[in-house]
Model the fold of this input.
Amino acid sequence: MATTSGQDIQSLEHILEKMDINNKEYVTKLLYGKNLEKLIIPADILENAEKIDIDLQGYIFKAKSESTRISNIVRVGAVQNQIVLPTTDSVADQILALHNRIKHIIEIAASCEVNILCLQETWTMPFAFCTREKIPWCEFAEHIPNGLTTQFLKKLAKLYKMVIISPILERDEKDVIWNTAVVIDQDGNVMGKCRKNHIPRVSDFNESTYYMEGNTGHPVFDTKYGKIGVNICYCRHHPLSWLIYGLEGAQIVFNPCATVDGLSETMWPIEARNAAIANSYFTVAINRVGTEVFPNEFTSGDGKPAHRELGHFYGSSYISGPDGSRTKGLSRSKDGLLIAEMDLNLCRQVKDAWGFLMTSRLDMYVKKLHELCQPV
Done:
């Protein structure tokens, strides 16, 4: 029997659609919680998306009507994309090419009335941290708030009255480098930033060569459209990181990532969805797409031959609700924009129904954590 490489698979959903199986509706329920209503996207917008070759999908998370609160509707967008130019091109040209690409996608998001948009991890550059080379990759690091990318997005945020989350490689005033998400409000002002708290030391993800664990904690930004947090990439493997955002009052937590099929794909559909359930908020899991080839070979220290590719970034971005429902995933192989219209009232309704925070026994756990953190 012929086998299919992971890179050739469009998406899990594409496989399911083509499978002739009984009880498909029940299988869908187990995988996605329930069949979410699709967001109606006008034909001309779908046509524009097709012209620039992006997978555009939209879904609706509904909450029950209440007599004491009106619906709290917000539209959220998640962008996944490939790099545009080869990694051998100049840093300036690579950044500009990605700016131009993302501008087109943001324009489509604006036409779909997206209120909050999040880009993928270190979106202005290839994920070069596998190489352990400092030059030219450190050149991609930019200052906040006056760096090229932040200034570029501030204009678009103000133009479209859109909150934009921009995860970039940051260079601070002391030339220390961080993996940072910048939050820009709908008036084009920088609300603040969140630095990546947990740095992987696994496989080819040699990120500790470039930047340190973050020092900004778990900030929650009270935007015009809702309270949001940003849990960057590897932080999704740490349940306490998700927990703190919930304790700080987040209604939506974004998880911009860069992860490859051979390492994490079996975990991917579970972690952000589970976090949404455990913490009674919405989660937005975003992964980049494509295979990036670097000019010089590098090794993993695992005895395998040297190579020039980190692996295939499998996209599959999705959004989960606090009730355990989730959207279908974007493509594994092409750029995409996923939109979800969500009623944030669902967060409190689920808290009332399940009582996870009320029954969490944080007092018991903090005592044990305090004991475990003492010097040996």
